[in-house]
Design brief:
- The complex is a heterodimer of chains A (about 350) and B (about 350).
- Chain A is of the alpha/beta class and about 350 residues long.
- Chain A has an 8-stranded mixed beta sheet, with helices on both faces. A 4-stranded antiparallel beta sheet of chain A has the order 2-1-4-5.
- Chain B has a single domain, classed as MetI-like fold (Orthogonal Bundle).
- The chains are: A alpha/beta (about 350), B mainly alpha (about 350).
Chain lengths: ~350, ~350
């Protein structure tokens, strides 16, 4: 699958400021800390898990922004902050220019219709005790937009639209396969005709052939309804296939971001390089000829992130500066303006990072 | 294989001719399993009989011509003024100390027992579920407050409280119901709170929040259906406790006041007559025992039927026989292959 997916990606990523009014969501310097409380009677906050630490991003309308990174790098937390499901520690989230950061539930209600989520686990995200019709009809019930026969018709239209049999209206989630369940989740997210759908690893739990189906469904829906997606995944090829622009996160910070074509073909951050080299290649010849960059060590604890550049303890190119000064996310010389990298010593074209890793390991 | 090919293939499969199949709910599956549990079915029959008997109490009083409160001195008592035995002078189960028909009094007692058992359990289930849900879902200060309240209720000396209340207000049915209900909800609240704590972390609760559902909708539409099973089992097991508790309070003279018949107060007086009138003790006690036992067994049966892991217990004996035969065949087959 991966080989077929890779090519028809790279559409133009808005590079100039004139596109600013097309911005659907703008996130400014978003920070989310989870307090770690002590065991004592008072339960003081003894530390913070710095899940997301100063992330900015924009989602243009009708486009897909891909978000990649290892488990635990803050992808899902960022998604939940944007969706308003968890309060934000600091920073701002704007939706169509309106500040929706930490709104009260009632005030948030109109924006809930515009921002929907598709969840990772097709089993956990559907209530096992409720019928599919009730699950997909929930958004109508909550927002009181349709009742009775009208709601049933709307739900069955949605089911047909996402490729489910509308006759299965009265079934329970347990009677569907993983792919069908994910379609139910898509139908629910689509019910209120949102402008943004946050897909939190929507295909990670599915078989590869089913992944393709769901991805194609999402692409069709985007074309039909002009949806924007924030697409989170750890499968790099999936993200490459669906995304107009890509953002790579490491330990709560953005390592690199830019148009998909740029980030995938000319990665500048050593972490992006390592990540890309770790993705399996479909072509066995290509797989044999390339060199993997094998990182040493684990992701450091987000409670005590490393000083300076958060990647420096594992980076093959790290120098003293990296542990002292935090690199800014900026355009590196020779890159288009939309391609941003947070690295003091970005990888140059033709540089062999795999050997550098070998050398540093010796 | 290309993406579009895969899409065509499986979309074709999914839009195969539609069968109108109604999904089988959890309740239907539970009922199917429960039907094959002989003990549970027998319990249901006993409970239905007790209910029918309670409903028919006034009819029986009319048929026998023995109203519940009317003593029949002479006909219903022997020369020493003691109760007469079963079958004497048309008293099917004999009489009580005043010469009243014991059968009619037991049937009227069943009304009180079932009424108290079902009403207090209903109150306890509704209150316990609501408080448990709120406590578990909101957490924080609300939870701490409610959890301490539950602890306080559970640590109360029940009988002493009932005694004190009866002493101050005089014994009455209302006090019985109030006391039993007040001391029953806390256990249900604890269980519901615990379940809510784990259920609220599920992704479908987050999905409900992301479509903008308010906390009450989430609690009662999304969480509650997942709790109905445990609540039903717990409630079924609380009914016999409440029935026995009513009998206890009435036995101690702080429950349903005389002359209203209740199993507890019948037994309280029968206690003085057991040497001369065995039926006076045996029949009301048997009614009490049968009722509480039936509810307990039904509760166990429902619990087993709800748990998919216990399915094999109800596997038909036919399947068991087949399995045994298969093992025998295998044992025979092994040496044959070897030689």
């Amino acid at each position: 699958m991966t080989g077929a997916l890779s090519d028809e990606t790279a559409q133009a990523w808005p590079t100039d400021a004139s596109m600013a009014d097309d911005v659907l969501v703008r996130v400014e310097n978003l920070v989310k800390y989870f307090p770690v409380r002590g065991n004592g009677l008072v339960r003081r906050t003894v530390a913070n898990v710095q899940a997301v630490d100063g992330v900015s991003l924009t989602i243009p309308s009708g486009k897909t922004v891909g978000l990649v990174g290892e488990t635990g790098c803050g992808k899902s937390t960022l998604a939940r902050c944007i969706a308003g499901l968890i309060p934000v520690t600091s920073g701002k989230v704007y939706f169509e220019g309106k500040d929706i950061t930490n709104l009260k539930r009632r005030v948030m209600q109109p924006f809930r219709r515009e921002i929907q989520m598709i969840f990772q686990d097709p089993y956990g995200s559907l209530n096992p005790r409720r019928r599919v019709g009730a699950i997909i009809g929930d958004p109508f019930a909550v927002h009181k937009t349709a009742t009775g026969a009208e709601r049933k018709r709307a739900v069955q239209d949605l089911m047909a639209r996402v490729g489910l049999n509308p006759e299965h209206y009265n079934r329970f989630p347990a009677e569907f396969s993983g792919g069908q369940r994910q379609r139910i989740g898509v139908a629910r997210a689509l019910a209120l005709r949102p402008k943004l759908i946050i897909c939190d690893e929507p295909v990670s739990a599915l078989d590869v052939s089913i992944q393709a189906q769901v991805l194609n469904l999402l692409a069709d829906l985007q074309a039909d309804f002009g949806l924007s997606y924030l697409f989170i995944a750890h499968d790099l090829e999936v993200v490459r296939h669906v995304s107009d622009s890509v953002m790579v996160m490491y330990l709560g910070r953005v390592a690199e971001s830019g148009p998909g074509s740029q980030v995938y073909t000319k990665p500048r951050h050593p972490y992006t390089n390592a990540l890309l080299s770790a993705a399996p290649a479909a072509d066995p010849d290509a797989a044999a000829s390339r060199r993997r960059i094998i990182l040493t060590g684990d992701v450091p604890s987000p409670i005590h992130p490393p000083s300076g550049c958060r990647f420096h303890p594992r980076c093959p190119k790290a120098q003293e500066l990296c542990s002292e000064q935090e690199p800014q996310l900026e355009t590196k010389p020779g890159d288009p303006p939309a391609h941003l990298t947070a690295c003091h010593f970005p990888v140059e074209a033709g540089e062999n990072l795999a050997d550098a890793v070998m050398r540093s390991a010796l | 294989m290309s993406v579009t090919e895969i899409q065509f293939q499986t979309q074709g499969m999914e839009s195969a001719p539609a069968q109108v199949i109604e999904g089988r709910s959890q309740w239907q599956l539970t009922w199917r399993r429960l039907r094959h549990d002989r003990m549970a079915v027998a319990s249901m029959v006993v409970i239905l009989c007790v209910c029918a008997a309670a409903l028919m109490a006034p009819l029986v009083a009319t048929w026998t011509g023995h109203p519940v409160l009317t003593p029949f001195p002479g006909k219903g008592t022997n020369a020493f003024g003691n109760p007469v035995g079963p079958g004497t002078h048309g008293f099917l189960l004999g009489t009580d100390n005043l010469g009243r028909d014991l059968l009619v009094r037991i049937l009227y007692g069943a009304r009180i027992s079932l009424f108290v058992g079902l009403l207090t359990t209903a109150i306890a289930a509704v209150a316990g579920t609501s408080i448990g849900l709120v406590s578990g879902y909101f957490g924080g200060f609300v939870d701490t407050l409610l959890a301490r309240f539950v602890d306080a209720v559970l640590s109360f000396p029940v009988v002493i409280t009932a005694l004190a209340l009866a002493a101050v207000l005089g014994p009455s049915l209302q006090i019985v119901i109030g006391v039993i209900a007040f001391f029953s909800w806390a256990g249900i609240a604890r269980i519901v709170r615990g379940q809510t704590l784990s259920l609220k972390e599920k992704e479908y609760i987050e999905a409900a929040r992301s479509i903008g559902a308010n906390p009450w909708r989430i609690m009662f539409v999304d969480i509650l259906p997942n709790l109905l099973g445990p609540i039903l089992v717990l409630s079924t097991l609380y009914i016999p406790t409440a029935v026995a508790f009513e009998a206890t309070l009435s036995f101690l003279g702080i429950g349903v006041p005389l002359p209203t018949a209740s199993w507890g107060n019948i037994l309280a007086i029968a206690n003085d007559y057991y040497q001369v009138a065995w039926w006076y003790v045996v029949f009301p006690a048997a009614a009490l025992l049968a009722t509480t036992l039936a509810f307990n067994l039904l509760g166990d049966g429902i619990r087993d039927a709800m748990d998919p892991r216990t399915e094999r217990i109800f596997a038909s004996s036919k399947a068991k026989r087949q399995r045994r035969r298969r093992t025998v065949r295998q044992k025979v087959a092994v040496p044959a292959e070897g030689s």
